[in-house]
C-alpha cells in the first residue's frame, strides 16, 4: 500500500532476519532458564512474533519476516518476552531503531544491546498545540501578560495494558512558580480530541510601558519559564496513572511572535536515571533491510523500461540492459529480484530466461556443471519459481510438512545422535515412510506445476540437449538441478522461508526435514552413483532403500511432464488453492432480524473458490462467501466502532461483513489478497461507504437509507492474477536505483567496451570481470541506460526541491521533533549551497 504524495507514490517495506539472543538475565528461580520469544513492532504495534524457544538464556530463532509497511512510523522495535503460564508475559528488554537510522544497519548482521522498557522508553505519538501570548490592560490602567494554551488533539498515543484513556496536564513552570491545569479524560482512544484552552498569568501587573511588553524586572524570569504538556493514561490500577509522553516549550520563543500553532512529537522525560548498564540484559542479533521506493507515474519510466524489456531480443544477450544490470551489481540476487518481477508483469519472463540460459549453456564446457553456479540465470529462475510456484508448494508439500511438525516421530538415523530409548530400525522406517510419501506427492504433481515454470523448463531442456547431444541425461539434469535442488529440497529444509510453516521448526523436526531434504535431493539428481553422494555412512546405508529403478523412472516421467510444451490444460485443475487463513474478529452481519450485532473471534479461510469463517481451525464453516459474491473490499474508518485495523467485505444486496485484523500489516495483506482474488468479478462496485451504517444512518455521508449507493470511489484495482501482485513501475524504480548506485561500474564497463574495440590483445585485469561479447552493441546499450538513469535522477532531484519548498516544519506530516525531516532539511540546504 503506497502513500500518495502529489504525483508520487511512496512504498515502504522491511525484510528482517531475527538471528539469536545471548546472555539474557537468569530467571529468579531454581531453574534459572527462560522460555523466550521475540516480537517485531512498528512503534508499539506488534506485526510479527517468533516461536517460543524453551529453557534457554541464549535462544536461537532463525526466523525471517517481510512486510509492506502501510503507514508512517518512527521506530522499528524488537521486544524479547519471557512466557509466563500464570501471568502476563514479562518483557526482558527491547531494541528500538529510529527510522532515520535504519540505513546504518542495512543488510548486515548486527548485535544490538537490549534496553530497559519503561514509560519513558515507550513514548510515541504527537500533540497539536496553539499558544497565544497576549497583553491585557486592566481597568486601573496596569498591564499584565497572559498565555492562552490550547490543546487541540493528539495522535498515535501508546496503548498501555490494552487500553488508552488519555488526558493532558498543562503546566506553566518557572524558577519560583509552577501552575498546572488538566483536560478531561477521553475514553478508549489513542487519538483524542481535547480542544480545551487554559489561561495562565505570565507577568505581574505593572504600569504600562510602551518600550517593552515586559517590565525589566520580569524579563529574566519570563525567559526561564516554560510551558509543559504531559500526556497520561487514566488508570484504575493502584499504581497510579501511566505516563505517555511530554512536551517542554520555553516561553522566550513567543517573544518574537505572540501566537504560535504547531504539531510536536512527544518526548520522554529527561530524568536520566538508568538503573542498569545496557549489557545487563543481553543482546539480540538482527539483519534489517529497509526499503523506501519513491515511484513516479508510468510515463517517467518509459525510456528505461523499454530498454529493459527488449533484453530478450538483443543479440548477443550479454549486450542487453538486463544482463548488464547483473554484471554491475555486487550480488546477482540484487539484480534478479526486480528483473524477474518486471518481466513477469509484462509477460516477458520466458523469452528473457530462455535467452540468458542459452548463452550460459553455450559457455558451459562440462554437462555435469550445467546451471550449478550462482549466475544471473540461476538466480532469475530461483526467483521465478519462488514467485510463481508458491501455491504449487502449498498444495504439494504443506499437508505432509504440517504432519511432520505436529507428530514429532523420531527419525534420527545417525547412531551417534540416537536418544535413550530410541530404536535405530524404527527410526529408519519412520524416515523411509516420510521420504516415500514426499517423493510420491512430488512426482505425481506434474499436472499442477505452474505453466510459466514448465515453459522455462522446456527451454532449459532444449538448450541443454542441443549443446550436449552426446549426453542423453543432460535434458533431465538441466531441469532437476532447479526443480529438486533449488525448489523442493530447500522448501523441505526450511519450510518457514517458503510460507509452508509460520516459524522455523524445532530442533528435532528440523533434523528430520534435513534428512528428508538430503534424500529427495539425491533422488532427483539422477546421478550414476548415488550412495557415493553422501559423506556420512549412515546416509549411504539408508539410501539403499531407494536404489531401485522405479524411483529413477518416476523422476524421469515427472521431469518429462513438467518440461514438455503443451503438456496439459492448466484450467482443468479444480482443486481449491488455499491463499490465506488465520484468526480475526468479525461483527455479526445481521442475517437475523433480532439479536445483538456483537464481535466474535473466528478462524477465517480464503481459497480461490470461497471466503469462509468458522469457530476454530478445522471446524465446519459458519459462513461461506463465494468469490463471485465479493463486490468490494475496503478499509473501514476507525470512528465506526472505535476499533483499529478494520476492513469490510461488501456482498450483494448491500450486506457487509466487518472484520478487524490483528495489526496494520495483516489488515493490508487480507485486503490485498481478497481484492486480487475478486478483481475479475463482473459486478464489482465502483463506490462504497468508508464508515458503517449505525443508528439509522451512514456515519460518512449521513444518508438514512441502508441501500444508499456509496459516497466514496473504490480504491484502485490490483492485478487479477492471485499469484503475482507486481507493480511494474515500482520494479523499474528499483532497477533505476541499482543502476544509479553502481554508476561507477557502468562507466567502467563503457571504458572496457572502448578498450576492447580498439585493442585485441590480452584483457586488462580491471575489465576482466565483465562479460562483453560485442563491445559496440554493449556500448550502445550502456549509453541508453546512462541517459535514462540521468533523466530519472533529475526528476527525483526536482521533486525533492519542490517538496522542500512546500513542506512546513511543524505540520501534521512533519511535527517539530521529526529527526528524519531535520536531516532532510540539512541535506537539502547543503545541496542548495553546493549548487550555488
UniProtKB/TrEMBL annotation:
InterPro entries the UniProt entry points to: C2_dom, C2_domain_sf, PH-like_dom_sf, PH_domain, Ras_GTPase, RASA3_PH, RasGAP_CS, RasGAP_dom
Gene Ontology biological-process entries: intracellular signal transduction; negative regulation of Ras protein signal transduction; response to stress
Domain C2: 1-112, 123-264
Domain Ras-GAP, first and last residues per copy: 331-525
Keyword annotations: Acetylation, GTPase activation, Metal-binding, Phosphoprotein, Repeat, Zinc, Zinc-finger
GO molecular function: GTPase activator activity; zinc ion binding
PROSITE patterns assigned: C2, PH_DOMAIN, RAS_GTPASE_ACTIV_1, RAS_GTPASE_ACTIV_2, ZF_BTK
Domain PH positions: 577-679
PANTHER family, sorted: RAS GTPASE-ACTIVATING PROTEIN 3 (PTHR10194:SF53), RAS GTPASE-ACTIVATING PROTEINS (PTHR10194)
Name by which UniProt lists this protein: Ras GTPase-activating protein 3
Amino acid at each position: 500500500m503506497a502513500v500518495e504524495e502529489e504525483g508520487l507514490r511512496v512504498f515502504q517495506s522491511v525484510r528482517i532476519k531475527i538471528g539469536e539472543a545471548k546472555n539474557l538475565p537468569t530467571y529468579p528461580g531454581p531453574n534459572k532458564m527462560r522460555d523466550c520469544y521475540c516480537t517485531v513492532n512498528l512503534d508499539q504495534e506488534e506485526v510479527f512474533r517468533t516461536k517460543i524457544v524453551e529453557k534457554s538464556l541464549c535462544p536461537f530463532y532463525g526466523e525471517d519476516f517481510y512486510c509492506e509497511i502501510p503507514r508512517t512510523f518512527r521506530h522499528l522495535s524488537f521486544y524479547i518476552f519471557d512466557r509466563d503460564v500464570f501471568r502476563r508475559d514479562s518483557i526482558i528488554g527491547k531494541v528500538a531503531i529510529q527510522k532515520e537510522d535504519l540505513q546504518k544497519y542495512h543488510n548486515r548482521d548486527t548485535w544490538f544491546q537490549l534496553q530497559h522498557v519503561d514509560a519513558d522508553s515507550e513514548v510515541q505519538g504527537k500533540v497539536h498545540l496553539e499558544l497565544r501570548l497576549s497583553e491585557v490592560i486592566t481597568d486601573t490602567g496596569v498591564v499584565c501578560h497572559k498565555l492562552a494554551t490550547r490543546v487541540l488533539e493528539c495522535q498515535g498515543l501508546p496503548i498501555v495494558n490494552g487500553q488508552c484513556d488519555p488526558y493532558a496536564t498543562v503546566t506553566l513552570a518557572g524558577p519560583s512558580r509552577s501552575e498546572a491545569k488538566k483536560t478531561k479524560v477521553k475514553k478508549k482512544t489513542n487519538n483524542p480530541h481535547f480542544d480545551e484552552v487554559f489561561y495562565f498569568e505570565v507577568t505581574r501587573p505593572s504600569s504600562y510601558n510602551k518600550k517593552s511588553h515586559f517590565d525589566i524586572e520580569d524579563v529574566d524570569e519570563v525567559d526561564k519559564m516554560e510551558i509543559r504538556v504531559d500526556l497520561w493514561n487514566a488508570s484504575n490500577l493502584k499504581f497510579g496513572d501511566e505516563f505517555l509522553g511530554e512536551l517542554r516549550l520555553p516561553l522566550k520563543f513567543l517573544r518574537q511572535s505572540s501566537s504560535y500553532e504547531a504539531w510536536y512529537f512527544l518526548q520522554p522525560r529527561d530524568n536520566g536515571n538508568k538503573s542498569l548498564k545496557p549489557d545487563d540484559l543481553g543482546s539480540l542479533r538482527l539483519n534489517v533491510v529497509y526499503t523506501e521506493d519513491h515511484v513516479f507515474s508510468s510515463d517517467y519510466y518509459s525510456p528505461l523500461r523499454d530498454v529493459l524489456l527488449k533484453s530478450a531480443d538483443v543479440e548477443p544477450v550479454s549486450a542487453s540492459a538486463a544482463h548488464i544490470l547483473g554484471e554491475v551489481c555486487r550480488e546477482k540476487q540484487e539484480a534478479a529480484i526486480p528483473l524477474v518481477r518486471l518481466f513477469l508483469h509484462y509477460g516477458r519472463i520466458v523469452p528473457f530466461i530462455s535467452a540468458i540460459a542459452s548463452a550460459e549453456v553455450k559457455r558451459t564446457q562440462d554437462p555435469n556443471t550445467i546451471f550449478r553456479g550462482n549466475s544471473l540465470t540461476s538466480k532469475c529462475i530461483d526467483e521465478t519459481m519462488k514467485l510463481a510456484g508458491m501455491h504449487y508448494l502449498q498444495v504439494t508439500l504443506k499437508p505432509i510438512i504440517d504432519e511432520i511438525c505436529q507428530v514429532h516421530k523420531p527419525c534420527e538415523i545417525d547412531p551417534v545422535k540416537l536418544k535413550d530409548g530410541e530404536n535405530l530400525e524404527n527410526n529408519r522406517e519412520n524416515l523411509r515412510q516420510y521420504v516415500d510419501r514426499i517423493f510420491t506427492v512430488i512426482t505425481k504433481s506434474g499436472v499442477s506445476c505452474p505453466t510459466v515454470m514448465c515453459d522455462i523448463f522446456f527451454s532449459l531442456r532444449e538448450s541443454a540437449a542441443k549443446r550436449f547431444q552426446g549426453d542423453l541425461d543432460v535434458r533431465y539434469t538441466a531441469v532437476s538441478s532447479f526443480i529438486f535442488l533449488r525448489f523442493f529440497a530447500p522448501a523441505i529444509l526450511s519450510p518457514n522461508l517458503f510460507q509452508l510453516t509460520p516459524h522455523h521448526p524445532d530442533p528435532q523436526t528440523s533434523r528430520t526435514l534435513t534428512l528428508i531434504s538430503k534424500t529427495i535431493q539425491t533422488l532427483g539428481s539422477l546421478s550414476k552413483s548415488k550412495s557415493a553422494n553422501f559423506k556420512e555412512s549412515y546416509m549411504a546405508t539408508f539410501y539403499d532403500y531407494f536404489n531401485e529403478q522405479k524411483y529413477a523412472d518416476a523422476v524421469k516421467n515427472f521431469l518429462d511432464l513438467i518440461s514438455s510444451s503443451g503438456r496439459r490444460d492448466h484450467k482443468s485443475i479444480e482443486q481449491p488453492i488455499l491463499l490465506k487463513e488465520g484468526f480475526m474478529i468479525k461483527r455479526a452481519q445481521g442475517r437475523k432480524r433480532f439479536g445483538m450485532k456483537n464481535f466474535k473471534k473466528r478462524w477465517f479461510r480464503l481459497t480461490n473458490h470461497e471466503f469462509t469463517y468458522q469457530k476454530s481451525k478445522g471446524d465446519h464453516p459458519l459462513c461461506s462467501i463465494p468469490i463471485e459474491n465479493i463486490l468490494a473490499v475496503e478499509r473501514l474508518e476507525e470512528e465506526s466502532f472505535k476499533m483499529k485495523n478494520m476492513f469490510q467485505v461488501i456482498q450483494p444486496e448491500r450486506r457487509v461483513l466487518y472484520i478487524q485484523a490483528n495489526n496494520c500489516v495483516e489488515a493490508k495483506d487480507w485486503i490485498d489478497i481478497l481484492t486480487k482474488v475478486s478483481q475479475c468479478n463482473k459486478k464489482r462496485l465502483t463506490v462504497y461507504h468508508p464508515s458503517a451504517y449505525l443508528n439509522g444512518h451512514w456515519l460518512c455521508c449521513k444518508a438514512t437509507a441502508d441501500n444508499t449507493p456509496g459516497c466514496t470511489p473504490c480504491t484502485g484495482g490490483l492485478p487479477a492474477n492471485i499469484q503475482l501482485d507486481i507493480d511494474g513501475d515500482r520494479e523499474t524504480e528499483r532497477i533505476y536505483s541499482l543502476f544509479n548506485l553502481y554508476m561507477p561500474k557502468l562507466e567502467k564497463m563503457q571504458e572496457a567496451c572502448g578498450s576492447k574495440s580498439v585493442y585485441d590483445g590480452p584483457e586488462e585485469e580491471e575489465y576482466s570481470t565483465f562479460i562483453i561479447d560485442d563491445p559496440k552493441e554493449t556500448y550502445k546499450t550502456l549509453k541508453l541506460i546512462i541517459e535514462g538513469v540521468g533523466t530519472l535522477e533529475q526528476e527525483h532531484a526536482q521533486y525533492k526541491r519542490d517538496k522542500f519548498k512546500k513542506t512546513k516544519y511543524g505540520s501534521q506530516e512533519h511535527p517539530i521533533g521529526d529527526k528524519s525531516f531535520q536531516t532532510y532539511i540539512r541535506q537539502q540546504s547543503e545541496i542548495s549551497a553546493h549548487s550555488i
